Amino acid sequence: MEICKPAVAGTLESSDLMVTVEPGTAGIELSLTSSVMNQYGRQIKKTVLETLDRLEVKDAKVTVVDKGALDCTIKARVECAVLRSCDKSDKNIDWGGVIR
Amino acid sequence: MIPRPKPERFRLRRTMIFMSSQKPGLIKDAYIYGVDSIMLDLEDAVAENQKDAARFSLYHALKTIDYGDTEVIVRINGLDTPHWQEDIRVCVAGGADGIRIAKCESAQDVKTVEEHVLAAEREFGVEEGRTLLMAALESPKGILNAYEICAASDRMFGVAISGGDFRKCMQTKFTPDGVDMMVARGQMLIAARAAGVQCFDTVFTNLNDEEGYRAEVMQNKAMGFDGKSLINPKQIRLVHELFAPTEKEITQAEKIVRAYREQSAAGVGVFTVDGKMIDIAFIPGAERTLKLARACGLYEGDLV
Amino acid sequence: MKNAVGRDIPDYLLVNGKEVYQGKNYMDGKYIQKASPRTRRYEKPQESKIVATIADALRQCGCKDGCTFSFHHHLRNGDYVANMVVKAAVEELGVKDITVAATSLGSAHDVIADYIEQGIVVGVQTSGIRGRIGDVVSAGKLKTPAIIRSHGGRPRAIEAGEVHIDIAVVAAPTSDCMGNCRGIGGKHNCGSLGYAMTDAKYADHVIVVTDDLVDFPNYPASVEAIDVDAVVVVDCIGDPKKIASAAARISQNPRDLMMAENVAKVIAATPYFKEGFSFQTGVGGPSLAANLFLEKYMDERGIKMGWAIGGICGPMVELLKKGKVGKVIDVQDFDLESVNSINQTPNHFEMSASQYANPANKGAFVNKLDFVVLAALEIDTGFNVNVLTGSDGILRGAPGGHPDTAAGSKCCIIVTPLTRGRMATVCEHVVTVTTPGDCVDVLVTDYGVAVNPLRPDLIECLDKAGIPHVTIEELKEKAYSLVGRPDDLEWEDKVVAVLEARDGTILDVVRKIKPYTVDQE
Question: CB contacts < 8 Å between A and B, how many?
């Protein structure tokens, strides 16, 4: 999936995260901050990158500000931001396919 | 991935708590309070421009979180919105136990949702007929059509009234004695019983009014509701307390069921228990009391 | 060298008779030589001890490089005095190499954090370390490791001479011109001055700082004029909004209430729950709410609480006023209701930190406690509790009276949600052991109750009462299944804080954390 325009999903509330995606040209440029960085930074990074990979995002600037979200929330926010950037977030979602 | 057993159409549903699907902190473990059903909300609790985001959260919550024995229902957006079709797809794909149809006004509304549910079950390879339905009656038209709504589908397990919207339509406001909704509640109850489905009362929104809340729950019980919709976990306890059968009711029910089984084995149809005449018509009620008592942890016998 | 809770303590810390933690009551029966201060005689009658400025008072008390100050934390996050004094010493007297020995430090003390960064404050000894001070100490900016002690461990260390106080500063809501201090009757009241008492007795010099000078004698005094060198009157000792909240309200959070109810159930299931039982609770949401449910059980059984101790707040004062508690003895007050009650309501008394919790005296109040209900940042499968460091390894907590009450009481109940956000509260190994597992008896979480296998008697009580319980391992697994198993923290060798057990042995050390950054690997 190509990131067509900047898009955001999520909030900065506790147990949530805010994901911003922007068009890029140099692969995935990830910026990550988290309130649980020392314990979960690696896992958050892995989940974000795996989700982007599943959505076949090759080039993007991705900014994640995490407030202690669970993995299921991280996936949901990344997916929503990416699909929003292509205007494909509100119908005919491939539940159980690319979204899983 | 948490596999969930096939939902039971008729189970204990004393309490049903609303949780916004858009709030990850809330939905992750609402079941710890011992509520019977969780109502994950895609409708009013989610802002218009976050409907898409809420579905992604909902999907992953359904797929990831172990809700145990707690039933998981999703309230979808009304049929007059652009959201409900995708709402149905995500509910079915995620494996929700049931769907609550908001602002339901006719049997046709139920049938429309049912068609889309069936299509989604086929699309996502979910067992056909697995996803249950319930309807929220929020308008005078919904109340007038309560019976046809209740009887519209084999998937229907119950109806609930939604006080906020209903009072708006009726140009009334909340009254402590419930007179503002007395007729609507009554009509809905009669329709539900006639159609053989369950019936749930609306939420009580003033969390600080403990007396008012208690009075309403007692009235709910007296009117014959199966349960109540809730907005805060701290409301759960009182419903479970007041809806539980009393010790006297349990003992009486036990006597009736036991005597009936003995007498009918001996070929006797009518008999007396504590001086009261009992026949087969009393049995379902007595058995329901014992089942409810068991669910409330008050009965450990083997009659039900 | 590994200690009794499995923590590796560097050998270089084990000098001058320091030992590693050996288990509960290891020092029982041993003798200590109490240290005595070197104090100045004021034989010639004085009209008043008032001096114009803090700097003058410091000069009078011989403040010099390498000086150790003591402060109490009764003004909590509203305290202005510690900052004023350290600032005067540094800016006006040019003093260096300062050690701050406070009963607790927090967000009110950012100025001291600055002096740590500048290398002017070189030592910190405290029972609590929060806010920016926690951050700078964690970052290794303090020259010597901070020493963290419990509220009972601190008076023990002072009496044993392990910390020698050159100047004790007593922030006092009221004082007379000779230095008789009280925590009430003034503009910015804090109630009990219990934490200042031992400090004032054992310091070489004592300076009282007040904003409400009252007629002599200010009696009965919490800190007595016979120990005071100088009195300084300032405009304001603290921010009243942050000294004591209007009223510590019982939490309405349903999770807290659910846990609190289970705490009360556990208490009511033990044999110690009988007429005249003794009780302490923390002021965290679920701990405080336990009061509410406990009252129900007391009424049901027709029994009363004999006495309560601790940090006190409104709900306990209410019970006292209703006649459901015999006596309340109080080392600290948390809200205006308790501040206004101490030494006013009959049977509401003040006590010193040593009377409260010191393990090396002849029997502190904690030793007579039946129940204590406490919170935790983390608790591990060995029931060891951490209330000092966050799961990220940063200092942001306070042992306070936690280890003392846990060790002294017959039944110590920890109450905490299983997870906080993505942090697993119940975990495999706590970051820092502040209260050893052999002092902790029951854990109550929102996902279930676990009893320490060291207490089969309590397990039997719960079974008899039909209270379901699981193993702590099951709770840990549940927590990890929710939030994922955290990565191990990575540490540098440098020790930034030494955590003393209440008996003075070394329970744990906190090292400098290596933060994870996304560009790593």
Answer: 70
Say if A72 falls within a structural domain. Answer: yes
* DSSP run (H or E) holding C27: none
Mean pLDDT on C278-289: 89
Residue B48's pLDDT band (cuts 50, 70, 90): very high
Interface test with A, best of C378, C392, C422 (most A CBs within 10 A): C422
Which among B38, B126, B149, B42 has a CA at the least distance from the CA of B85?
B42
Q: Which domain holds residue A28?
A: 7-85
Determine the average pLDDT of the residues in B122-144: 96
Q: Find the closest chain B residue to C466 by CA distance.
A: B297
* Close Cβ partners of C466 (under 8 Å, ≥ 6 residues apart): none
B122/B90 same-domain check: yes
pTM assigned to the model: 0.92
Does residue B1 surpass a pLDDT of 60? no
Q: What is the pLDDT of residues B241-300, one digit of tens each?
A: 999 999 999 999 999 999 888 888 888 888 888 888 888 888 888 998 998 898 888 888
- CB-closest option in A70, A80, A91 to B56: A80
B96 CA to chain A: closest CA distance, Å? 13
Interchain CB distance below 8 Å, B232 and C254: yes
- Please state, as a whole number, how many other Cβ atoms lie within 10 Å of the Cβ of residue C65: 11
Domain span at B277: 247-295
Instruction: Convert the pLDDT of each residue in C382-407 to its tens digit.
Output: 999 999 999 899 999 999 999 999 99
Q: Which DSSP helix (H) or strand (E) runs through C138?
A: helix C131-138
**Sole residue written with tokens 């159930």:** C265
Question: Within a domain: residue A99?
Answer: no
Report the domain count for chain B: 2
CA distance C69 to C297: 46
What's the confidence (pLDDT) of residue C520? 64
Q: Are both B179 and B272 inside the same structural domain?
A: no
Interface mutation target, options C249, C250, C251, C255, chain B, most CBs of B under 10 Å? C255
Average of per-residue pLDDT across B61-76: 92
Total domains in chain A come to: 1
A71 close to C (CB below 8 A): yes
User: How far is Cα C5 from Cα C20, in angstroms, rounded to an integer?
Assistant: 10
Superfamily of domain C254-489: Glutaconate Coenzyme A-transferase (3.40.1080.10)
Q: What pLDDT is recorded for position A24?
A: 93
Beta strands C419-420 and C423-424 are antiparallel
Contact C447 B234 (CB under 8 A): no
Indicate which CATH number applies to the domain containing A31.
3.30.230.10
Give the pLDDT mean for C8-15.
Answer: 96
Complex ipTM: 0.97
Strands (E), B143-295: 156-161, 198-201, 227-230, 271-273, 276-278
For residue B4, is it within any domain? no
Mean pLDDT of C46-65: 97
Residue B300 resides in a domain: no
Task: Decide if A90 is inside a domain.
Answer: no
Q: What is the pLDDT of residues B157-182, one digit of tens each?
A: 999 999 999 999 999 999 999 999 99
Q: C-alpha distances in angstroms, C284 versus B29, C149, C396?
A: 21, 21, 15
Class of the CATH domain delimited by C49-243: alpha beta
Is the bond into B284 cis (omega within 30 degrees of 0)? Answer: no
